[in-house]
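Entry 14. Structure prediction run on the chain below.
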Amino acid sequence: MLDKKITVMMPAYNEERDLPGLLSRIQLALDGWADYRILVVDDGSRDRTVQIVRDAAAQMPVELVQHPRNMGLGAAMRTGLKAAAQESDVVITLDADNSQDPELIKSMVERLETGFDVVIASRFQPGAQEIGVPPFRIFLSHLSSAGIRTLIRYPGVRDYTCGFRAYRAETLRNLIDMFGDNFIRENGFSCMFELLLNLRALHARASEVPLVLRYDLKEGASKMRILPTMWRYLITLIRGLLPVSWRVVSGGERHDYDKKS
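Output returned:
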C-alpha cells in the first residue's frame, strides 16, 4: 500500500479542543505503511484551529486550506474533495471531532483494493458501536437510516450519513467531471447523503466496515441542528430520486441551511 498516495481530508470548524489529539492519532495510524498527507479545510474557524494545523505541519505532513468565512460542511467538503482527488489515489474523509478511530483507515483502504469505489465506516454493520451518543440521537439516526434504506437501494450501503469514508480518487474525479460543482449542492450535514446518491448514479461500488463511534472522546459541542438537518435530508432524498440529467445542470440556489454556528 506504500505505492498508494492517500489524502486524509477533514473539514474543521472551531475544533481546537479535538483536533490536536486527532492529528496525533492519524499520524500513529498511518506512519510506516502509508504515503499520506492530511488536508484540513478550515471553514472560517474563530478559535485556534488554524494555528493548531500550522503548528502540526512541523511534525507531520499536514496542509491547510482556509475559507474566509463559515460556509457550511458541504462547502468545505466540495473544497477538500476537489483538492484531494487531483493529487491522490485514495481519499479518506473523517470528522475533525475525534469521535472516529483512524486505525480503521488501513482496513478501509484494503477493502478498496478488492474492487470497491467507496468504503463507509458504518454504524449499522455487525460489530459497530455508538459510545456516548445521546439515546435520542441514536433513535433518530437509526430511524432515518431505516427510512432511507427503504426508499433508496444502494447495494452494500446501510449507513448513508457517516462522514468517515474511503474513496477511490479516480471515482471522485469521475463524479466531479459528471456533476461539476453540483457533485455537492447541500451545504449542511445532508451533503454526505447527497454524495452517496450521486455516487450511486455513477454506479460506484460500495462496501462497509463496522465503526465504533466514540462520542465520549469528543470534547467540543455538536454542531448539528437536528430538525433543519432532517428537513434537508428529505429535500436531498427528493432531489436524488430525480433523473441524473436534472441534477447535473449547473446553477441552482445554494443555502447555508444547517450551517455550523
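Confidence is low (pLDDT under 50) at residues 250-261.
Filed with the rest of this week's runs.
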